[in-house]
Design brief:
Helices cover 33% and strands 28% of the residues. It is α/β, with parallel strands linked by helices. The termini are far apart.
């Protein structure tokens, strides 16, 4: 438990700004800044995002989704299309895997284990499938799509807490036919907000990844966000 990860709880942030923030934090790693391992925890306004395989999402598809009141972004993460929005805990781990284990497969597996442990803490039986992510039976509760650059990770996971699941009706989530989506609130039949889930996620991440965490220094947070807003 000697590895240290800084936790940055932002609240609501646009997807565009989150991309800029991730690039900044990745750059800190590549500049060999100390103590750069960071978990960014936030929620997004409604947005559909695709991964590196974007051929099946022509511009008309993007326009149709935007007409629903959501943004649309193409990204360099793995995976196909998914939705982010209010009531969903999005976590972007910006980690140097050389501080853990330099393997993207190991990393994705441990992200899945983290979310499964979180679900277990709430009394939900969750697991994996041949498809990436965390599932409750045939319904995906957490999407995972990551990117690695010289073993520095970006993008991450999206866990449905109290998400409006009707947003997913307009897409084939993660490109997987015949499967559904669910949320912590739906499975527990009560409202489960992001604020309740964050501490459970952090504890589960600490246990699975063998690290401990501290809050990201507020002054450093303010300085970075000020640069992004300009």
């Amino acid at each position: 438990m000697n590895k240290l990860v800084k936790v940055w709880q932002i609240g609501r942030l646009s997807y565009r700004k989150s991309l800029e923030l991730q690039k900044h934090l990745v750059r800190l790693h590549h500049e060999n800044k100390e103590l750069s391992n960071t978990l960014v925890c936030l929620e997004h306004p409604p947005v559909y995002t695709t991964g590196i395989r974007t051929g099946q999402y022509p511009e008309q598809v993007a326009k149709n989704l935007e007409q629903l009141g959501a943004e649309f972004y193409r990204t360099n993460r793995g995976g196909l299309i998914t939705f982010h929005g209010p009531g969903q805990l999005v976590v972007y781990p910006i980690l140097n895997l050389k501080d853990f284990k330099p393997s993207m497969r190991w990393y994705v597996c441990h992200i899945e284990k983290t979310v499964i442990r979180l679900c277990n803490k709430l009394g939900i039986e969750a697991g994996t499938s041949p498809n990436t992510g965390v599932w409750v039976k045939d319904n995906k509760i957490c999407a995972i799509g990551v990117h690695g650059s010289r073993f520095v990770t970006s993008h991450g996971l999206a866990l449905n807490c109290s998400t409006d699941l009707t947003w997913f009706e307009h897409i084939v989530p993660c490109g997987i036919e015949g499967k559904g989506v669910t949320s912590l609130s739906k499975e527990l039949n009560r409202h489960v907000d992001v604020e309740e889930v964050v501490p459970l996620f952090l504890d589960s991440f600490s246990e699975i990844f063998g690290c401990h965490y501290v809050d990201f220094p507020k002054k450093e947070c303010d300085n970075i966000l000020a640069d992004l807003i300009q």
